């Protein structure tokens, strides 16, 4: 091959290598394991709603870190491949940008009033997730919890949610809000209702017994 042809080929190879070495914009991977949230009341503080958020796949955590500017963009390649490292969770977890993101994308309200959230810096973001406490103006019976995490990166993301008493829901980009019943049923009311039901049943039995006795008398 002539020298000129070799130089042209070498130049093309170097140009291609330079293009593929450029940092790639973060892509989302919404079709793997879903992210989860767990909603619970605080037994000691009836005005507090507790939410624990956990990412589905560790590659999604890396994608989020890139989107928040906490990780270098070259961690996500042009073909969408994501390179997760153990240090990613440690870089993201204590970051104020991550806390702000959670408070923006996960919101709680009660009786039409917003509840103030506070993120606890996670010890193990990858394994245990992040905990957020929302303090409401008064004791909470029904909490409206909205979850929009990761759907800002790709609307195909969804979230599996669990709540008190085994309640479950699925959050999507189109259905991002759900009402959760947190207040316990008053035990006294339950006993009162049971007593009233027992009295009604007893009354019906008395009436039925009287009707049977009357029929026997008539037949005799």
Any overview of this molecule?
The protein has 220 residues and is of the alpha+beta class. The chain has six helices and ten strands. The protein has two domains: 24-181, no CATH class; 186-220. It has helices at 3-21, 58-67, 86-92, 96-105, 125-128, 187-219, and strands spanning 35-42, 45-54, 106-110, 113-114, 116-120, 130-135, 142-147, 159-162, 168-171, 177-181. A six-stranded mixed sheet has the order 5-6-2-1-8-9. A four-stranded antiparallel sheet has the order 4-3-7-10. The chain starts with a helix and ends with a helix. Residues 3-25 and 185-220 have low confidence and may be disordered.
User: Over all CA atoms, what is the radius of gyration?
Assistant: 29 Å
Low-confidence stretches: 3-25, 185-220
SSE order: HEEHHHEEEHEEEEEH
Helix content: 25-40%
Lateral arrangement of strands in the main beta sheet: 5-6-2-1-8-9
Strand percent estimate: 25-35%
Number of helices: 6
Give me a quick take on this structure.
This protein has about 220 residues and is of the alpha+beta class.
């Amino acid at each position: 091959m002539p020298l000129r042809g070799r130089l042209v080929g070498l130049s093309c190879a170097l140009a291609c290598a330079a293009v593929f070495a450029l940092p790639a914009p973060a892509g989302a991977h919404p079709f793997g394991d879903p992210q989860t949230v767990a909603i619970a009341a605080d037994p000691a503080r009836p005005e507090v709603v507790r939410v624990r958020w956990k990412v589905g796949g560790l590659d999604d955590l890396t994608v989020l870190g890139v989107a928040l500017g906490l990780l270098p963009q070259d961690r996500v390649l042009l073909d969408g491949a994501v390179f997760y490292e153990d240090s990613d969770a440690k870089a993201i977890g204590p970051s104020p940008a991550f806390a702000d993101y959670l408070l923006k994308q996960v919101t709680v309200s009660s009786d039409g009033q917003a509840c103030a959230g506070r993120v606890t810096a996670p010890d193990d973001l990858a394994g245990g997730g992040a905990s957020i406490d929302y303090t409401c103006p008064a004791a909470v019976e029904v909490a409206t919890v909205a979850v929009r995490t990761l759907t800002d990166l790709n609307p195909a993301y969804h979230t599996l949610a669990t709540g008190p008493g085994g309640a479950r829901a699925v959050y999507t980009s189109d259905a991002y809000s759900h009402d959760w019943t947190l207040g316990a049923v008053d035990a006294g009311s339950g006993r009162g209702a049971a007593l009233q039901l027992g009295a009604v049943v007893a009354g019906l039995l008395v009436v039925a017994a009287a009707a049977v006795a009357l029929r026997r008398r008539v037949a005799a």
